[in-house]
Amino acid sequence: MNLGNRGSILGSDEVEASIESPRLMDSRSWPLGGCVIGGVRMEGAADIDWDSLTFSLTQTDYMYVAECELGQPWHPGEMRRYGNLEIDPAAGVLNYGQGIFEGMKAHRTVQNNVVLFRPDENARRFQRGAARLGMPPVPESMFIDAVEQVVAANSHFIPPSGRGALYVRPVLWGTGPIMGVAPSPSYTFCVFVTPVGPYFKGGLTSIELVISDEFHRAAPGGSGGVKAIGNYAPGMMPSKNAKKNGYAEVIYLDAVEHLNIEEVGAANFFCVKDKHLYTPELTGTILPGITRDSIIQLARHRGYEVTETKVSAEFAMQSDEAFCCGTAAVISPIGSITHEEEKKVYMDGNVAPITRELYNALTGVQTELAQDPFGWLHKVQLNLPLNMV
Ligand code: PLP
Ligand code: COI
Question: Is the dihedral of CA 358, 359, 365, 370 positive or negative?
Fold first, then answer.
């Protein structure tokens, strides 16, 4: 087993931590103890300063791995110690980017349950992504079982309620060797987790964004509507440049007319005008965010009108409030948007009222502080049997 050599590796702001001893918990690092089921310590807290968590990688103890050959059913997956995987240099994912990922969170609620938020939606989006990239879909039941096992096995890394979440990262890669540009002969489905704090520094504080006139995220007919791994590397340089200039992230406009807002880096966009919410319609180039869909439903449930439509940059910059949203970003209030020479400041940079209301509504459901009117929470049994090797 090769466990790498550092703990907290990459943050959303791309700051690399200095080489340090791994944040890898063994029994000595679990001050609160716990019980052991099937060789796995199920309870007790990891030795983590929960209040210092950022959106960065902390190695946890266990991951899930399953494999399949193209055209065959999946072999049963197994739980392993977290660590490196061996891969052929000619793997489809390494050469041609044949891969997708998901992002989900397990929350510890105020009632001390551990819950996933709408995991069936992630499973279905994962299947749509697999189909788009010519990969074998992972059955929904297998996807949910894998996620549950990894959450349960690493339950001591789930932050206390309200102080972060366990971020769950399912990935599907073409791992078989291939030279022609064609689907890999074999595939790996892996799920790992890490405890995380806020994606944007400061949590519920406003962020400054800039509209890019130079770069686009996705074009019609491409892969922008699924979580293809290849969608993300081209955003790194624009995002890094924006950060150098004091912005938290880039807003991308549509690649055809270059008029309408599509996404904020890896998050969806909303604005509010006269108490009416607007969000870019799903045209195929925008990722159908599960948080986006949840906000639409929650806002309507609370009596707001919500319109999915083309949202021009001009309209957004005349609106009263704006925010972006996603599993990692939750709801991040937008304090200002800069486009060319123009800068729109929302609410003097303060968190606007409808943005705050929706943040409280969404996080209230996710942490069982509020009712779950749509049945979105999926409880994880921490003592479920683990397929451990
Ligand atoms: N847009 C992009 C490009 C993303 O990567 C994500 C993150 O998953 C989102 C939007 C938000 O989606 P979700 O709310 O499902 O996390
Ligand atoms: C998520 O919100 O889960 C995402 O996938 C965003 C990410 C690229 C950090």
Answer: negative
